[in-house]
Prior knowledge:
With 328 residues, this protein is an alpha/beta fold. The protein has helices spanning 3-10, 14-21, 28-41, 47-54, 70-85, 99-111, 126-133, 156-168, 185-202, 218-231, 243-255, 289-305, and strands at residues 59-64, 89-94, 116-120, 139-142, 151-154, 175-179, 210-213, 237-240, 265-267, 284-287, 315-318, 320-323. The chain is built from twelve helices and twelve strands.
Amino acid sequence: MTMKELAQIAGVSTAAISRYINDGPLSKEKKERIRAAMDETGYHPDAASQVAKVGFADHIGLIVPKIDSDAVNRFTTGAAPALADAGFLTLLADTTNDPAKELSYLELYQNRQVAGIILLASVLTPQLEDALRSSNVPTVVVGQQFRQIPCVYHDDFGAAYELTNLVLSKDRNKLGYIGITEQDIAVGQNRKSGVQMAMKDYGLDPETLAVEISSLSVEGGRAATEQLLKRKPDLNGLICATDRIAIGAMEALRNAGKRIPQDVSVIGMDDNWVGEYISPRLTTAHFYYKTSGEKASNLLIEMIQNKGKPGPVHQVMLGYTIKNRDSV
């Protein structure tokens, strides 16, 4: 039913219906007629129209890079309850790893007057950095460390460094590394740098590290490993930037007749739940994604409560735990 049809049943104008819905001035007699017509017809104001008027002041906008990611699932598991406990509802936007969509959703949330935004960031572009700094809505970044922007991030360098030392301790010195685009500072740059620094400290030349770039997928890890084996058939240690990549790498190694870990040690990072159930079980680094969601939410709530007053820019780095299983 439309507002016009309701007005005809109540015997009033559409303007009177609009004033009634929005608590505008209206005579008692017209209010009773409109109320009776709404009860009779079951009419409810259009939700989209109401939202356009009042905004989403009780909502928090979450922006994530890939909704089917295990890390994203753990992050939202931490964020949503913390926000709900503070009285906020959540809106979820999936960018499918498209930097342009990150900018679009940031703009959309600001225009819809959400109370705050949490961005689980992947690639840092100058455009994104400018958008975050000029945001008129309290915003917290998760997963990346951005200058002068509140954020919660992980010790990607430290985890990669410690895992590489674990491989090297097994007398594996012919190493390969499968990473992702270095536009992703945390996963692309910092994890690779941790591997290279561990090699240097162990007395190996980081330039001997055979590197392939992959997508964040099992298929990407499989294809990258096949290329690595062509370049370095005597590979005996393989470090992967993520567990998904590592799972694909393990399949490619088995297809090539390599035993894990007897011939090649393999490690991943992130502690995807699958890694504990494959054979051999994957050695990895557990990052506290659920905790990052909780901490980012609490930080954002504090910013909202301060109502835009100047204050310190909080940046929180979370640690990791090495899960030493069977693949090393």
